[in-house]
Amino acid sequence: MALTAKALAFAITASAALGLSAFGAQAASCGNTGAGFEAWKQAFVQEAAARGVGGKALSALQATSYATKTIHADRNQKSFKLSLEQFMAKRGAKTIASKGKSLKKSNAALFARIEQRFGVPAGPLIAIWGMETGFGSYMGNSNILSAVATLAYDCRRSEYFTNQLHAALKLVHNGSLHSGAIGAAHGEVGQTQFLPVNVLKYGVDGDGNGSIDLIGSRADALASTANFLRGHGWTPGAGYQPGEPNYAAIQGWNSATVYQQAIAIIGAEIDG
Protein backbone atom coordinates (compact mmCIF):
# COMPACT_ATOMS: atom_id res chain seq x y z
CA MET A 1 0.00 0.00 0.00
CA ALA A 2 1.56 3.29 -1.06
CA LEU A 3 2.16 5.87 1.67
CA THR A 4 1.98 9.64 1.25
CA ALA A 5 4.85 11.64 2.73
CA LYS A 6 2.58 12.70 5.60
CA ALA A 7 1.40 9.16 6.28
CA LEU A 8 4.96 7.82 6.10
CA ALA A 9 6.12 10.42 8.61
CA PHE A 10 3.29 9.42 10.92
CA ALA A 11 4.14 5.74 10.60
CA ILE A 12 7.82 6.37 11.34
CA THR A 13 7.04 8.54 14.37
CA ALA A 14 4.47 6.14 15.83
CA SER A 15 6.59 3.06 15.26
CA ALA A 16 9.71 4.71 16.66
CA ALA A 17 7.83 5.42 19.87
CA LEU A 18 7.44 1.68 20.30
CA GLY A 19 10.91 0.78 19.10
CA LEU A 20 9.42 -0.72 15.95
CA SER A 21 10.30 -0.65 12.27
CA ALA A 22 8.20 1.83 10.30
CA PHE A 23 7.25 -0.46 7.49
CA GLY A 24 5.62 -3.41 9.34
CA ALA A 25 2.42 -4.66 7.80
CA GLN A 26 2.22 -2.34 4.82
CA ALA A 27 3.04 -5.27 2.56
CA ALA A 28 -0.15 -6.98 3.74
CA SER A 29 -3.17 -5.62 1.85
CA CYS A 30 -6.06 -4.22 3.84
CA GLY A 31 -9.67 -5.13 3.06
CA ASN A 32 -13.21 -3.97 3.67
CA THR A 33 -14.76 -7.39 4.22
CA GLY A 34 -13.64 -10.50 6.04
CA ALA A 35 -12.81 -12.32 2.82
CA GLY A 36 -9.13 -11.41 2.82
CA PHE A 37 -8.48 -11.50 6.55
CA GLU A 38 -6.78 -14.89 6.75
CA ALA A 39 -4.39 -14.09 3.90
CA TRP A 40 -3.64 -10.69 5.47
CA LYS A 41 -3.03 -12.37 8.83
CA GLN A 42 -0.52 -14.85 7.42
CA ALA A 43 1.39 -11.99 5.79
CA PHE A 44 1.31 -10.05 9.05
CA VAL A 45 2.56 -13.08 10.99
CA GLN A 46 5.56 -13.38 8.68
CA GLU A 47 6.32 -9.68 8.96
CA ALA A 48 5.93 -9.74 12.76
CA ALA A 49 8.27 -12.73 13.00
CA ALA A 50 10.83 -10.89 10.87
CA ARG A 51 10.63 -8.01 13.34
CA GLY A 52 11.45 -10.31 16.23
CA VAL A 53 7.99 -10.95 17.68
CA GLY A 54 8.17 -13.97 19.98
CA GLY A 55 6.47 -17.31 19.52
CA LYS A 56 3.84 -16.76 22.21
CA ALA A 57 2.67 -13.55 20.59
CA LEU A 58 2.75 -15.09 17.11
CA SER A 59 0.61 -17.99 18.30
CA ALA A 60 -1.85 -15.51 19.77
CA LEU A 61 -1.98 -13.64 16.47
CA GLN A 62 -2.53 -16.88 14.57
CA ALA A 63 -5.54 -17.60 16.79
CA THR A 64 -7.30 -14.31 15.99
CA SER A 65 -10.43 -14.22 13.85
CA TYR A 66 -12.24 -11.52 11.90
CA ALA A 67 -14.44 -9.67 14.40
CA THR A 68 -17.67 -8.71 12.66
CA LYS A 69 -19.08 -7.05 15.80
CA THR A 70 -16.00 -4.83 15.94
CA ILE A 71 -16.64 -3.66 12.38
CA HIS A 72 -20.31 -3.08 13.19
CA ALA A 73 -19.38 -1.03 16.26
CA ASP A 74 -16.80 0.93 14.29
CA ARG A 75 -19.37 1.89 11.67
CA ASN A 76 -22.16 2.76 14.12
CA GLN A 77 -20.79 5.12 16.76
CA LYS A 78 -23.76 7.34 17.59
CA SER A 79 -23.35 8.37 21.24
CA PHE A 80 -21.18 11.37 20.43
CA LYS A 81 -23.90 12.86 18.22
CA LEU A 82 -26.08 13.40 21.31
CA SER A 83 -26.46 16.67 23.17
CA LEU A 84 -24.66 16.95 26.51
CA GLU A 85 -27.92 16.42 28.38
CA GLN A 86 -28.77 13.34 26.29
CA PHE A 87 -25.24 11.97 26.65
CA MET A 88 -25.23 12.44 30.42
CA ALA A 89 -28.56 10.65 30.69
CA LYS A 90 -27.44 7.81 28.42
CA ARG A 91 -24.26 7.28 30.43
CA GLY A 92 -26.06 7.44 33.78
CA ALA A 93 -24.19 10.47 35.07
CA LYS A 94 -26.23 10.82 38.26
CA THR A 95 -25.63 7.19 39.20
CA ILE A 96 -21.92 7.46 38.42
CA ALA A 97 -21.59 10.56 40.59
CA SER A 98 -23.52 8.99 43.47
CA LYS A 99 -21.63 5.70 43.43
CA GLY A 100 -18.41 7.55 42.72
CA LYS A 101 -18.66 9.48 45.98
CA SER A 102 -19.00 6.19 47.85
CA LEU A 103 -16.04 4.64 46.01
CA LYS A 104 -13.91 7.69 46.70
CA LYS A 105 -14.60 7.29 50.41
CA SER A 106 -14.06 3.52 50.53
CA ASN A 107 -10.84 3.78 48.50
CA ALA A 108 -9.54 6.94 50.14
CA ALA A 109 -6.03 5.62 50.73
CA LEU A 110 -5.67 4.53 47.09
CA PHE A 111 -6.82 7.87 45.71
CA ALA A 112 -4.58 9.74 48.14
CA ARG A 113 -1.55 7.75 46.91
CA ILE A 114 -2.48 8.38 43.29
CA GLU A 115 -2.91 12.12 43.83
CA GLN A 116 0.37 12.34 45.68
CA ARG A 117 2.16 10.48 42.90
CA PHE A 118 0.53 12.03 39.83
CA GLY A 119 -1.24 15.16 41.06
CA VAL A 120 -4.65 14.03 39.80
CA PRO A 121 -7.59 14.07 42.24
CA ALA A 122 -10.15 11.30 42.54
CA GLY A 123 -13.08 13.00 40.78
CA PRO A 124 -12.05 12.85 37.13
CA LEU A 125 -10.50 9.40 37.58
CA ILE A 126 -13.70 8.02 39.05
CA ALA A 127 -15.78 9.75 36.37
CA ILE A 128 -13.71 8.07 33.65
CA TRP A 129 -13.80 4.73 35.48
CA GLY A 130 -17.58 4.90 35.82
CA MET A 131 -18.32 6.00 32.27
CA GLU A 132 -15.92 3.58 30.63
CA THR A 133 -16.80 0.33 32.38
CA GLY A 134 -19.26 0.98 35.22
CA PHE A 135 -16.32 0.88 37.69
CA GLY A 136 -14.89 -2.29 36.17
CA SER A 137 -18.18 -4.18 36.08
CA TYR A 138 -18.25 -4.53 32.29
CA MET A 139 -15.11 -4.27 30.19
CA GLY A 140 -16.56 -5.59 26.92
CA ASN A 141 -17.17 -8.91 25.20
CA SER A 142 -14.59 -8.88 22.40
CA ASN A 143 -11.31 -10.73 22.19
CA ILE A 144 -8.85 -7.86 22.34
CA LEU A 145 -6.34 -9.26 19.86
CA SER A 146 -9.03 -10.22 17.34
CA ALA A 147 -10.60 -6.78 17.58
CA VAL A 148 -7.30 -4.96 17.06
CA ALA A 149 -6.19 -7.32 14.29
CA THR A 150 -9.51 -6.82 12.50
CA LEU A 151 -9.13 -3.04 12.61
CA ALA A 152 -5.50 -3.27 11.48
CA TYR A 153 -6.72 -5.26 8.48
CA ASP A 154 -9.73 -3.01 7.81
CA CYS A 155 -8.85 -0.26 5.33
CA ARG A 156 -10.60 2.58 7.16
CA ARG A 157 -7.88 3.12 9.80
CA SER A 158 -5.35 0.45 8.96
CA GLU A 159 -2.18 2.40 9.76
CA TYR A 160 -3.45 3.54 13.16
CA PHE A 161 -4.53 0.07 14.25
CA THR A 162 -1.46 -1.62 12.78
CA ASN A 163 0.48 0.32 15.39
CA GLN A 164 -2.04 -0.78 18.03
CA LEU A 165 -1.64 -4.42 16.96
CA HIS A 166 2.14 -4.29 17.28
CA ALA A 167 1.68 -2.84 20.75
CA ALA A 168 -0.82 -5.56 21.70
CA LEU A 169 1.62 -8.26 20.56
CA LYS A 170 4.33 -6.66 22.66
CA LEU A 171 1.99 -6.74 25.68
CA VAL A 172 1.33 -10.44 25.10
CA HIS A 173 5.05 -11.06 24.78
CA ASN A 174 5.90 -9.30 28.05
CA GLY A 175 3.01 -10.88 29.95
CA SER A 176 0.94 -7.73 30.48
CA LEU A 177 -1.91 -9.05 28.32
CA HIS A 178 -3.29 -12.58 28.09
CA SER A 179 -3.89 -13.79 24.55
CA GLY A 180 -7.52 -14.55 25.41
CA ALA A 181 -8.18 -11.27 27.22
CA ILE A 182 -11.59 -9.73 26.69
CA GLY A 183 -12.11 -6.01 26.12
CA ALA A 184 -14.22 -3.53 24.20
CA ALA A 185 -15.05 -3.60 20.51
CA HIS A 186 -12.03 -1.59 19.40
CA GLY A 187 -9.60 -3.59 21.53
CA GLU A 188 -9.65 -1.29 24.54
CA VAL A 189 -8.04 -2.86 27.59
CA GLY A 190 -9.08 -2.82 31.22
CA GLN A 191 -11.19 -0.91 33.69
CA THR A 192 -10.63 2.48 32.07
CA GLN A 193 -10.27 1.20 28.50
CA PHE A 194 -6.74 1.90 27.29
CA LEU A 195 -5.80 1.13 23.72
CA PRO A 196 -2.67 -1.09 23.58
CA VAL A 197 -0.26 1.73 22.65
CA ASN A 198 -1.37 3.66 25.73
CA VAL A 199 -0.92 0.61 27.95
CA LEU A 200 2.71 0.53 26.84
CA LYS A 201 3.17 4.27 27.21
CA TYR A 202 1.21 5.06 30.38
CA GLY A 203 0.56 1.75 32.15
CA VAL A 204 1.96 1.71 35.70
CA ASP A 205 1.98 -0.62 38.68
CA GLY A 206 -0.49 0.98 41.07
CA ASP A 207 -0.78 -1.79 43.65
CA GLY A 208 2.95 -2.47 44.05
CA ASN A 209 2.91 -6.13 43.05
CA GLY A 210 5.52 -5.71 40.34
CA SER A 211 3.21 -6.16 37.35
CA ILE A 212 0.79 -4.06 35.33
CA ASP A 213 -2.73 -5.44 35.05
CA LEU A 214 -5.33 -2.93 33.86
CA ILE A 215 -8.02 -5.61 33.78
CA GLY A 216 -7.74 -7.22 37.20
CA SER A 217 -6.32 -4.39 39.30
CA ARG A 218 -8.31 -1.23 39.91
CA ALA A 219 -5.20 0.34 41.43
CA ASP A 220 -3.21 -0.26 38.24
CA ALA A 221 -6.06 0.99 36.04
CA LEU A 222 -6.65 4.18 38.03
CA ALA A 223 -2.97 4.98 38.51
CA SER A 224 -2.39 4.45 34.79
CA THR A 225 -5.28 6.79 34.00
CA ALA A 226 -3.75 9.43 36.26
CA ASN A 227 -0.41 8.89 34.51
CA PHE A 228 -2.15 9.38 31.15
CA LEU A 229 -3.64 12.69 32.30
CA ARG A 230 -0.29 13.82 33.69
CA GLY A 231 1.28 12.90 30.37
CA HIS A 232 -1.23 15.17 28.69
CA GLY A 233 -0.26 18.19 30.75
CA TRP A 234 -2.13 17.83 34.03
CA THR A 235 -1.00 20.46 36.55
CA PRO A 236 -1.43 19.48 40.23
CA GLY A 237 -3.87 21.74 42.06
CA ALA A 238 -5.24 23.46 38.94
CA GLY A 239 -8.90 23.29 37.93
CA TYR A 240 -10.26 20.92 35.33
CA GLN A 241 -13.48 22.58 34.18
CA PRO A 242 -13.77 24.06 30.66
CA GLY A 243 -11.45 27.05 30.41
CA GLU A 244 -9.28 25.89 33.32
CA PRO A 245 -5.72 24.55 32.89
CA ASN A 246 -6.38 20.83 33.29
CA TYR A 247 -9.34 20.66 30.92
CA ALA A 248 -6.83 20.21 28.09
CA ALA A 249 -5.63 16.97 29.71
CA ILE A 250 -9.23 15.72 29.84
CA GLN A 251 -9.54 16.59 26.15
CA GLY A 252 -6.62 14.25 25.56
CA TRP A 253 -8.65 11.38 26.98
CA ASN A 254 -11.46 11.57 24.42
CA SER A 255 -11.96 13.78 21.38
CA ALA A 256 -15.75 14.07 21.82
CA THR A 257 -16.77 17.37 23.42
CA VAL A 258 -19.72 15.84 25.26
CA TYR A 259 -17.45 13.19 26.78
CA GLN A 260 -14.95 15.79 27.93
CA GLN A 261 -17.69 17.89 29.50
CA ALA A 262 -19.20 14.86 31.21
CA ILE A 263 -15.88 13.94 32.83
CA ALA A 264 -15.49 17.48 34.14
CA ILE A 265 -19.08 17.72 35.44
CA ILE A 266 -19.18 14.29 37.10
CA GLY A 267 -15.66 14.69 38.46
CA ALA A 268 -16.55 18.00 40.11
CA GLU A 269 -19.65 16.44 41.66
CA ILE A 270 -17.55 13.63 43.12
CA ASP A 271 -14.79 15.92 44.34
CA GLY A 272 -17.34 18.26 45.88
Write the layout of secondary structure elements.
Layout lengths: L4 H13 L19 H14 L4 H8 L5 H8 L8 H8 L1 H14 L1 H11 L3 H12 L8 E2 H10 L4 H17 L7 E2 L12 H7 L15 H14 L15 H7 L3 H15 L1
Antiparallel strand pairs: 1-2
Helix pairs in contact: 2-3, 3-10, 6-8, 6-14, 7-12, 8-14, 9-10, 10-11, 11-12, 12-13, 13-14
Could you name the key traits of this structure?
1% strand, 272 residues, two-stranded antiparallel ribbon, 14 helices, disordered N terminus, Lysozyme, mainly alpha
Note down, in words, how this protein is organized.
This protein is mainly alpha-helical. It folds into 2 domains: 5-74 and 144-183, no CATH class; 79-140 and 190-271, Lysozyme (Orthogonal Bundle). Helices cover 58% and strands 1% of the residues. The chain contains 14 helices and 2 strands, in the order H-H-H-H-H-H-H-H-E-H-H-E-H-H-H-H. It has helices spanning 5-17, 37-50, 55-62, 68-75, 84-91, 93-106, 108-118, 122-133, 144-153, 158-174, 196-202, 218-231, 247-253, 257-271; strands at 142-143, 182-183. A two-stranded antiparallel ribbon has the order 1-2. Helix 2 (37-50) runs antiparallel to helix 3 (55-62).
With strands numbered from the N-terminus, the spatial order across the biggest sheet is 1-2
Largest sheet, if any?
2 strands, antiparallel
Uncertain spans, ≥5 residues at pLDDT below 50? 1-26
The end-to-end distance, rounded to whole angstroms, is 52 Å
Number of strands: 2
Along the chain, the helix and strand elements come as HHHHHHHHEHHEHHHH
- Binned strand content: under 5%
Number of folding domains? 2
Count of alpha/pi helices: 14
Question: What structural category characterises the helix and strand content?
Answer: mainly alpha
CATH architecture assignment name of the largest domain: Orthogonal Bundle
Helix content: 55-70%
The 3D shape can be described as globular
Mean pLDDT metric: 90
What is the alpha-carbon Rg in Å? Answer: 19 Å
